[in-house]
Amino acid sequence: MEYNRILSKKYKELIIDYGIIFGIDKMVVLIKTGQNGSIYGYNDKYLRMAIDINKKHSCTVVVSSNPYDCTDSLEQALEVIDEEVSQEVEVYFMGMSNGAILGARFGYLHPEIKRMLLINGPLMINWPQTKKGLEKFNGEIATMVYGSLDPSYMYAEMVEFIDNSGKIRLVKCEGADHNFMNMDEYFQRLPEEFLFI
């Protein structure tokens, strides 16, 4: 079990890794891991997720690492998609923790991003910037998922006050902590439940 291709690209002073599973459909799922997360994740969770999505939907999946202190605006990841896949694709974005915040803040800058799944993004860190990005999101839908044991859960209700014509949806997961520990099977199903709706 391995990615079809692994790339390393310099972003400012950091190196971001990209793992790619190639598909045949004109849709790409872009997964941005949590802060300091690798393209594999704990117990290869992102690799397993990428393979599963590819098998079920025949689409390409690109998983992006997220080095500590990365302020990536998703620009480089979308350039990788342009170079390695095609410039004529729809992108479904999934971000975990800091990856979710990057999607919330910068997803609107990239019209090719049609749907977003944002999981346990820290809401207490620069909420005005996160809110502004979500208000400007022009894709189909952005689903924000919060586990009841995640530190941001107590702030999750703020999401319901974002003014964006019903394009922002809040989902609460009872019993899930920040990393969905001991809930790996459910975590693996999140894209199926909330990206491919």
Shape: globular
**Helicity level, as a percent range?**
25-40%
Biggest pleated sheet: 8 strands, mixed
How much strand content do the residues show? 25-35%
Q: What is the tally of beta strands?
A: 8
Secondary-structure element order, as H and E? EEEHEHEHEHEEH
Straight-line distance between termini: 27 Å
User: Uncertain runs with pLDDT below 50, 5 residues or more?
Assistant: none
Please, what is the average pLDDT?
94
Alpha-beta classification: alpha/beta
- In spatial order, strands of the major sheet run 1-2-4-3-5-6-7-8
Radius of gyration: 15 Å
How many DSSP helices? Answer: 5
Give a structural overview.
This protein is α/β, with parallel strands linked by helices. The chain has five helices and eight strands. It has helices at residues 45-57, 75-84, 98-106, 127-136, 184-194, and strands spanning 5-11, 14-21, 27-32, 60-64, 90-96, 113-119, 141-147, 168-173. An eight-stranded mixed beta sheet has the order 1-2-4-3-5-6-7-8, with helices on both faces. The chain is globular.
Summarize this, please?
The chain has 197 residues and is α/β, with parallel strands linked by helices.
